[in-house]
Amino acid sequence: MSVLNDNIARAQGYMARFAAEGVLNHIGGETVPALSGQCFETISPVDLKPLAKVAKSGAADIDRAVAVATEAFKTWGKMPGAERRKVLLKVADAIEARAEEIAFTECMDTGQALRFMSKAALRGAENFRFFAAKAPQAEDGLSLRNADQVNITSRRPIGPVGVITPWNTPFMLSTWKIAPALAAGCTVVHKPAEFSPMTAKLLVEIAEEAGLPKGVLNLVNGFGEDAGRALTEHPGIKAIAFVGESRTGSMIMAQGAKTLKRVHFELGGKNPVIVFDDADLDRAVDAATFMIYSLNGERCTSSSRLLVQDTIYADFTARVAEVANRIKVGHPLDPETVVGPLIHPEHEAKVLSYFAKAREEGATIAAGGEKVGAAGCFVRPTLFTRASNDMAVAQEEIFGPVLTTIPFKDEAEALEIANGVQYGLAAYLWTNDLGRAMRMTDALEAGMMWVNSENVRHLPTPFGGVKASGIGRDGGEWSFDFYMETVNVCLPRRLHQVPKLGG
Ligand code: NAD
After folding, report:
1. 8-state DSSP, 30
2. 272-451: what fold?
3. Distances in Å between the alpha carbon of 293 and those of 147, 210, 234, 381?
């Protein structure tokens, strides 16, 4: 049996239970259907065949989950951080023990290639370990003194929170939001994306089997406009951590306004990779292609705009086209596959529509630009050359393996193009001139910048975007600032003069 056939057989084994039971909600430790009894079907992007029926929840299911999360908060929120650490470390170990099941399920549910998803569980476990280690100090604050008084700050978990996640790398992203919330002492109601519900169910089951008390993490499936909306509007939910599209972020902000919801948004991007002619071009080609063609290009920090200095533009883009043409598109469970099918036919149609747009606008399609095969959502890695910054392919987030390249003359022009979009999530800069790197990173409008590197994550650093790419930062202490309230207590150091009135 080939490796691929063997992997498909094992994946079918892991997913048989979902086909039989459906992907139901998980509230207070119980697997439950939507109260309405309604379901919707989730399909695999590999062959568009149904994978499972998913609970189609609404406001009543959210009410039920919030009530449970509120009750669980009374004990989880008060548990010493060192105790929470123990539980969360066990969750991390349990995630790693189920790494293959998580990876295979994610591949079939999302179309992401196994070569990347094999690390999904490891990265999820790492998120749990990192925030678990910080749990004992999460409440710590500052001591701020003046002559008369000492102010002591401390942090408390904000309460039950809502976590709403998208369909790209859903397992890893969910742990990135849920682990710090739990470490901080919050309880969680998680609403995963309707296109990719499966690994969220694995996560809550794994966490409870490892010892997470029931009701601390709850899962409610459904569509954004009903289950998602109800979560953002619920008065019992103190904050919403959201990852998804910019226009959804703005809807959530409006929905949460009535209940003064604290929000944290990780939104879209159209991230530039800027290559100057003095750079190490071999490394720059590898990094630029990795950051757009890995993870199907369905990645918020993908380098979807390649800005190349005009002196090397023709040669550099020809090398990128060569890489794009060599990339294997195929079944996500084939270990050789780099680009698997896009998440869903709706998303595939969106990505394909940009091929026509690029042609209409006058860009050149130097690689790809077509669908692969009749079945499934397979699209060839694509390269648009000679684009200009006003084209839709240069401005809009395509969220597929599609790279738009634009030539530039000098630093000033590179900056003007790089900053000339509504987004500001990440930027990548390739130059061997330190002064230029300093000048450019000072002026680039992006929350995260990498110089002479692809995106390499370091969990203590701040993650997030500026402009339409987001509000707030994750990572290290920034995550705790979001999931906790900082309070101040002022104590006397000596008797100061209290103002007397009416005397
Ligand atoms: P999306 O905004 O369509 O959906 C994300 C989630 O929001 C889903 O769970 C959906 O059901 C829910 N939702 C939709 N409407 C809602 C509403 N009115 N109220 C409450 N919830 C609602 O995004 P997507 O298409 O699933 O994901 C892709 C997007 O996510 C891209 O724009 C990508 O850049 C972004 N993303 C950003 C980051 C980051 O860190 N900045 C990371 C990953 C993905």
Report:
1. E
2. Aldehyde Dehydrogenase; Chain A, domain 2 (3.40.309)
3. 59, 36, 39, 7
Q: Which of 285, 333, 276 is nearest to 46 (CA)?
A: 333
- Find where tokens 């998803």 sit: 117
Is residue 10 classed exposed, middle or buried when 0-12, 13-18 and 19+ CB atoms within 10 A define those classes? middle
Q: Residues for the chain: how many in total? A: 503
288: helix, strand or coil: helix
DSSP state of 488: E
- Residue 477 annotated to the active site: no
Q: How far is the CA of 147 from the centre of ligand 1 (A)?
A: 50
Where does residue 328 fall: left (phi above 0), alpha (psi -120 to 50 degrees), or beta otherwise?
beta
Structure-token pair, residue 106 = 């994610």
Q: Which of 163, 164, 223, 448 to mutate to test the pocket of ligand 1 (most atoms within 8 A of CB)?
A: 164
Residue type, 323: V
Ligand 1 midpoint to CA 308 (Å): 30
Q: Is the pLDDT of residue 1 over 70?
A: no
Q: What is the pLDDT of residues 158-179, one digit of tens each?
A: 999 999 999 999 999 999 999 9
Beta strands in 119-238, from DSSP E residues, in sequence order:
143-145, 149-157, 161-164, 188-191, 217-219
Single-letter amino acid code for the residue at 210: A
Domain limits of the chain? Answer: 8-267+469-487, 272-451
**DSSP, res 261:** -
Ligand 1 pocket, residues with Cβ under 6 angstroms: 164-168, 173, 191-194, 223-225, 228-229, 232, 243-245, 248, 251-252, 255, 266-269, 300, 397, 399, 425, 465, 469-470
Q: Is the dihedral of CA 231, 66, 185, 94 positive or negative?
A: negative
- Close Cβ partners of 352 (under 8 Å, ≥ 6 residues apart): 371, 379
Residue pLDDT, tens place only, 112-161:
999 999 999 999 999 999 999 999 999 999 999 999 999 999 999 999 99
User: CATH second-level architecture of 8-267+469-487?
Assistant: 3-Layer(aba) Sandwich (3.40)
